[in-house]
Amino acid sequence: MSWLVEVDTESCIGSGMCAGTAPDHFELVAGVAQAKSSSVEPDEDVVDAAESCPVEAILVKEAASGEVVAPKD
């Protein structure tokens, strides 16, 4: 199983919460968050990063089903 990670760069405010929470998976480039890879193995740090984003610019989905893993409402 793998997850797909998307960052809405239009919504991102560059707070850096994701890079601080999951530095193996996110980085800030020119003040905007980017996923280091669009496909990742399940990792609780990725969920934590998506949940901690102040503008919910990060979306994590199961690759096979498309079910949203994070953020949860």
From TrEMBL:
Q: Which cofactor does it need?
A: [3Fe-4S] cluster
Hey, what's the signal peptide range on this chain? none
Pfam families per the record?
A: Fer4_13 (PF13370)
Key words, A-Z? 3Fe-4S, Electron transport, Iron, Iron-sulfur, Metal-binding, Transport
Q: Where does the record place the 4Fe-4S ferredoxin-type domain?
A: 3-31
Q: What PROSITE patterns does its record include?
A: 4FE4S_FER_2 (PS51379)
Q: What does this protein do?
A: Ferredoxins are iron-sulfur proteins that transfer electrons in a wide variety of metabolic reactions.
Entry-linked PANTHER family: FERREDOXIN
Q: Under what name is this protein listed?
A: Ferredoxin
> Which species is this UniProt entry from?
Saccharopolyspora cebuensis
